[in-house]
Structure formats: structure tokens, C-alpha cells
Amino acid sequence: MPSATAAAQATSSQDQSAAPLAVVMEFLSDTAPEKVEAAATRLVAPDAVYVSLSFDNPELKEIEPWAGTAKGPGAYSSTFLRVAKYWKIEDFTITDKLAAGEDVAIFGKFTYRSVEVGHVFTSPFSIHAKVRDGKMVYLQFLEDTYASASSFRQSGSWTVKTTKATPAFEVGVK
Which of 98, 137, 139, 152 is most buried (most C-beta within 10 Å)? Predict the structure, then answer.
């Protein structure tokens, strides 16, 4: 049988994790264009780091300008403002939430429709965030970036060679 001290420590740890989780969930619930700038000002530290999709990928950044590493509340809000311009968000579902201390992990899936081309895709996503003193100081967002970038494709293909034993093949042919 667990001791009262062990039970109190477990409860205290859960309480300490609940606050960071609440901060991240509040931000995610306020990512609509009319809300996200106020949410970023309220919930993101001035020197917070945002890693979107990759640390640094110049080619991806041409397609999705928010990709890469940026700092400050503006990095958080501008990402969601741009996403709303590039895609119609048809679904955004959180399936799992975990928190331990300052670390928060969120998992789920979303379905977006590209505004200009009309391509629809569904992607899993994961978020790793760190919260200190009631503000996010780090957020890393990962998704199926091949699917998101491909939602803008109008034409073109790649010739791909994955291993010595595999012949080259074409992908992206419509």
C-alpha cells in the first residue's frame, strides 16, 4: 500500500503538470485568426522558441514560410495566421495529452483543404511544448509535411532512388 507521503508527492506532481498543460490547451483553443495574436501575447514568453516542421529547411520554407526555427510570440501567432490563409481547417482533433513538469506533449490529427488548389489531406501531428511561469518557452510542431506541402502541388513529379537494390521510380504523377 502506498504511503501518504508517496500519494501526496504524486498529487503534487500532477498539479504541477496540470498548469503547463492548461497553458498549451488554452493557446491551442485560441488559434483562430481573430484570437491568436492576443493568445500569443498572453501565453508565450518574449524569448520563446518555435520549431515548425523542421529546424531549418530552405526549400520547405519556400512552400510553407513558417517552417523552421523562430523566436517570440510573433512566431507563434504568424504561423497560425498563415495556416488559416493557406488552408481551410476542416478538422483538428486532439487524441492524447501528456504532461510531466514543464513538458507537455499533444498528439492528434487534422484535415486541411488547400485554399488555392483544393487538395485535402489528413495528417497526424505532435506537439512538444515547455511551459515556465505560466508561459510557453518552447513549442515544436510536427506533421506529415510531405502531405501538407503536396496539398499545393499543381504539377510535377520526382524521380526517387531509395536503395541500391531498388530501381528508380517516379512519385507525384497525377
Answer: 139
Structural domain boundaries, residue 145? 4-171
Q: Compute the mean pLDDT over every residue in the chain, rounded to the nearest whole number.
A: 91
- pLDDT tens sequence across 26-41: 999 999 999 999 999 9
pTM for this entry: 0.84
Q: Are 107 and 123 in contact (CB under 8 A)?
A: no
**29-33, long-range: CB < 8 A, 24+ apart:** 31/80, 32/84, 33/80, 33/81, 33/84
Amino acid at 157: S
Instruction: Decide: helix, strand or coil at residue 56.
Output: coil
E strand or H helix at 85, and its extent? Answer: helix 73-86
Q: Please tell me the total number of residues recorded for the chain in this structure.
A: 174
Residue 50 · residue 43 · CB < 8 Å: no
Number of domains in the chain: 1
pLDDT of residue 7: 47
- Distance, in Å, from the CA atom of 89 to the CA atom of 112, rounded to the nearest integer, reads 5
Q: What DSSP designation does 174 have?
A: -
